[in-house]
Amino acid sequence: MIISKRVAATRSIIDNQRDSGLKIGYVPTMGALHDGHLTLIRKSKAENDYTVCSIFVNPKQFNNLQDLKKYPVSVEKDIELLEAEKCDLLFLPNQEEIYPNNFKSTYYELGHLEKILEGHYRPGHFQGVCQVVDILLSIIHCHNLYLGQKDYQQCMVIDKMIEMRGHHTQTHIIPTVREKSGLAMSSRNERLNSSEKLLASEIYSVLKWIRYNLKAGSLSDIKKTAEEKLLLKGFKPDYVTITDTKLNILEEWNGNDQTVALIAAYLNEVRLIDNMTLN
Ligand code: AMP
Q1: Of 96, 104, 189, 228, which has the maximum CB count within 10 A?
Q2: Which residue's C-alpha comes closest to atom 17 of ligand 1?
């Protein structure tokens, strides 16, 4: 695996591969890699000739400085994991490489996506996500971009940014990879101790409970009971909600349209998110 830290060198390596006719797949990450990330790498390997991964902990998407400071970093282990998957190139830039001194940020018009759920609870987060993925896609000219459904709203935001900025890449959304307990794999899980990890899988149980109990008509009772279940186990939920696939929040369900349940909740200091398509 090539490890490239510079923008110009990375762009030139990838453009050379592209010009020689290879199909490029790309998996952007913030590191502390786990099997969720590696599943995206494997998918890219299966569908492309050349797979690129990036590791960059993007300060602009952290609305909370403490969260950024506590974000797990394990670059050496990450490199070993990527080598084992036969990833072709790792782009590992430092901050100045991505945000040079003269850097001017772009504003992305994200409409309702920025005002609801993660957008509401993490102001500025999606501007930061768009900014970094926009820059990364201008360096890594990939045919296929692999994202995880775990970050459902992020997938929609990135799709919108790609359309607005005219990047020529196809996004692929990969189902959430879970621990045996059902807990969605996440770099943030490293901040949970073993009993918290077990408890954290309750979020998955509640999502399954919502799926099982979803009925046409008003959704207020099901949302309220689901939230109470989390509160009872000691979580502090930011939201428990049901939306259509475009993330319009539903107060009622017509019994037909596809819906998604989404949860964000704190377990002690750690904020966890998860979602499930319901029907
Ligand atoms: P992150 O390093 O958390 O920014 O994640 C990088 C990419 O991996 C994003 O597209 C995430 O949605 C995806 N990802 C993270 N966790 C999982 C998971 N458990 N299953 C599938 N994809 C994931």
Answers
A1: 189
A2: 36
Q: Given a cut of 90, is residue 144 above it in pLDDT?
A: yes
Clarify whether 112 is annotated catalytic. no
Q: How does pLDDT run across 165-210, given as a tens digit for each residue? A: 999 999 999 999 999 999 999 999 999 999 999 999 999 999 999 9
Question: Locate tokens 């599943």: which residue?
Answer: 39
Count Cβ neighbours within 10 Å for each residue of 63-93 and write b for 16 or more, e otherwise: eeeebeeebeeeeeebbebbeebebbbbbbb
Cβ–Cβ under 8 Å, residues 232 and 206: no
- Report how far apart, in Å, the C-alpha atoms of 168 and of each of 27, 97, 162, 217 are: 15, 23, 8, 41
Tell me, using a 6 A CB cutoff, whether residue 186 lines ligand 1: yes
Mutate to test the pocket of ligand 1, among 81, 90, 150 (most ligand atoms within 8 A of CB): 150
Q: Which residues, at least 6 apart from 49, have a Cβ–Cβ distance to it below 8 Å?
A: 17, 22, 23, 24
Q: From residue 21, give the alpha-carbon distance in Å to each of 4, 16, 89, 139, 175.
A: 21, 9, 17, 18, 29
What sign for the dihedral angle of Cα 124, 34, 45, 13?
positive
The answer to pTM > 0.85 is yes
Residue 58 Cβ contacting ligand 1 at under 6 Å: no
Amino acid at 240: V
**Dihedral over Cα of 47, 50, 53, 54: its sign:** negative
pLDDT digits (tens, 9 = 90+) for 14-58: 999 999 999 999 999 999 999 999 999 999 999 999 999 999 999
Q: Please name the amino acid found at residue 82.
A: L
